[in-house]
């Protein structure tokens, strides 16, 4: 009897040790059908008027009801920070709660990385992380190590359906907001974040190594290479607005088996995906009604099957339509319109274009921030 108790205790000790890898609020595991389904909500842009916000809530509810995901992944720009009037406080937190309310009502757990617009109102990245984590169903974690750049750098493992062994991991990296290392354009994942990612990968020695996803807001430059030279599925409806400096995340991904899929947001009219040098690069589908879009609103879905391990992706659109791409755009190595640099770089260098609404917002935002004010040209 004594021996049995000791054995039971030992087993429980082991099981709970692995359960606490990830967020102790909830162990993520394959469901009883041996599947794990992720819905990626991106660029929702709450805060641009009641009608848009109500449409956001309606669509998110529709998608949750139709897809019944095991986890919602949020890849940034939940809130249109630029729509803030500069005096109403709190503001961003209330917009954020309009979003999380829908997930809570549906009982859906979620994990977040922030975008470039979330911080343009009255909350900074650390505060948004803290706010997000304060909700019971949020599985977002604080930065995995102190002093990592930006605020949403962490990993969540997904276990087999018995909750014993990690099957794959979901990495969340924070691509910041504007100007990578002071270079005009969009921000990036910094070298210290990449070093952390690289170090963590070397520690993995189970069968989950090399499997899984990396979610972030602003795409890597390699998305341009995929578009220019390779076949892909889906729509490339605007320039790829990637990091103003390529800090080398892709090299860390290629050095050792790390992730199989990267999925970004940021570019509202792009939802394409394809394989570039052995890694699948994808965009989510723009979810929200705020800000621009020339594409039907929706969300990308990833469904992972445990055994045999496989991944399927599709887009669930407003109205219920499911888009499963079957026809890729053929490889076009000498394409007539290659993209040569990350979009947004030139416009931001100017920051004076009176025709461009986003640049106007950005200019005003920079002027309100003592640390960024010097970047606005006279
Ligand atoms: C969002 O939150 C604000 C403040 O709590 C509220 O006034 C507004 O009605 C909400 N919008 C929606 C669509 O729920
Ligand atoms: C969050 O979880 C705690 C602990 O289970 C519970 O006491 C609390 O009521 C929950 N809050 C909400 C808003 O559901
Ligand atoms: C790291 O963060 C800690 C606590 O915030 C701080 O005391 C320390 O100076 C930081 N170290 C570096 C190298 O930035
Ligand atoms: C996108 O723009 C094109 C050209 O302006 C237009 O024909 C098309 O209807 C638009 N599509 C959507 C979904 O808004």
Automatic annotation (TrEMBL):
Gene3D superfamilies: 3.60.21.10. It comes from Halteria grandinella. Keywords: Signal. One of its GO terms (cellular component) is cytoplasm. InterPro entries: Calcineurin-like_PHP, Metallo-depent_PP-like. This is Calcineurin-like phosphoesterase domain-containing protein. Residues 1-17 form the signal peptide. It comes from the Eukaryota. GO terms for molecular function: hydrolase activity, acting on ester bonds. Residues 36-269 form the Calcineurin-like phosphoesterase domain.
